Amino acid sequence: MAIETIKVPDIGDAKEVEVIELLVSVGQSVAENDSLLVLESDKAAMEIPAPMAGVVKSILVNLGDQVTTGSEMLTLEIADVTAAAKALPAKPATVAAAQPAAKAAEKSIAPASAPAPAAQAAAAQTIAVPDLGTDDEVEVIEVHVQAGDKVALEDALLTLESDKAAMDVPAPQAGTIESILVKVGDKVKTGTPFAKLIGAGTTASAAPAPVAAPATAASVNAPAATAMVPKNSVRPYAGPAVRKLARELGVTLGEVKGTGAKSRILKEDIHEFVRARINAPAGSNTATIAAIPDIDFSQFGDIEQVPRSKLQRLTAINMHRSWTAVPQVAQFNEADVTDLEEFRESLKLEAERRGTKLTFMPFLLKACARTLREYPQFNVSLHSSGDYVIQKKYVHIGVAVATEAGLVVPVIRNVDQKSIWQLGDEAAELADKAKQRKLKPEDMQGACFTISSLGAIGGTGFIPIVNAPEVAILGVGKTQIKPVYIDGQFVPRKMLPFTLSYDHKAVNGVDGGLFATYLAKLLADIRHLAL
Question: 235-306: which CATH architecture?
């Protein structure tokens, strides 16, 4: 009998990761490849397998400890000293943060006596669709890489879409794509091979070593899609992707009941929690409005039940959350854009030469960016504690775009640093991508402020809902010619109505009035943009 100290194997680029679950206890017998503990980085969770069989003699880490490659985890009492000397730590099975759910998967393990030749170590690894938590087929809606591309750990390889959600499938390790086995529009399911990857930095070992299952999302060492903390721990039992979703929707994880294995919290649990909050009866602790009862409308005539897209459902959840959580004030104003429209018309020939359709939007973006710089109290997000705000030093502006699937808000970055021509090209490109459903998640993240324009649709004005965690949004109506009293007489002027909605928790009414007045001034005389 001998005592072996088991250390954290190579965990890639992560410098320090947190111990979020201990899967064994002192005195427990473990077999080779049994999971010992769960580690979590900011991108993924991973289970660490036993490199050999034995009995746990001591555990050298606690929940919440930060460890890195080579950190001592525990000690094992083993019977075969020779076998232990040859055994190498198995690579931890990385569980992608984007996974919604997963189950234990059976995989064959090569005998420990089988050496891994150098040729085999450098061979391409077949990457399969991770466990989707369902046997249903899902559609490949985007392929992010092609043969010959180099990828890093957790880089998105492709995007899958079900009738409930879309998810990116990440690379289980760094390497080079040898081939892609699927195309956009294909139907795949759990276990479907979709790519071949040649791992980077793979070297052959002279000593015989156990051949562990590839570190894919469906690895034998990854019985849960997201490895998380047990429910009796201080932290809720949820992984990185679920925690991110909870932050985006403003959900406190401690209030959510998990339905996964060991009561882990899944993405579906987050969505169900939000729906329950929205539909909670009046007088409850979770909401202050009564649920609207369903009615059998067929008793009044012919009907058709039309499913809503997932984008429409998610938009409804987000808008209701913002409406109920944000005390919103609306500031109405008009801008005289007569001179601006004449200037824009004068640029028509140059726009045609550039191949650009110069709409009113680039000028509006530029004016809003300048106003955000002038009144930085609108370029903040309020921390959930209410104790402070996060002041943003950049100016990214979202522009609402209506598509057949629903409303999306692509984001134009560093608006204050770009010319009118650049803004025109970028706004047109993002709007086109939105309508073709080709926007990536990063295209819709990071906005400081949002513009929602009804443009030529009509109407004298509307009150847009603040897109939290932003603190303000601009609703733009249709330009109308109105008589304006100037120098003792009425003259026809093109007037642009707009509404500034803002979060009264973060911004006061005086600032709202100043913001709207300054914006109107810039639109009335764009020469101020040059000052």
Answer: Irregular (4.10)
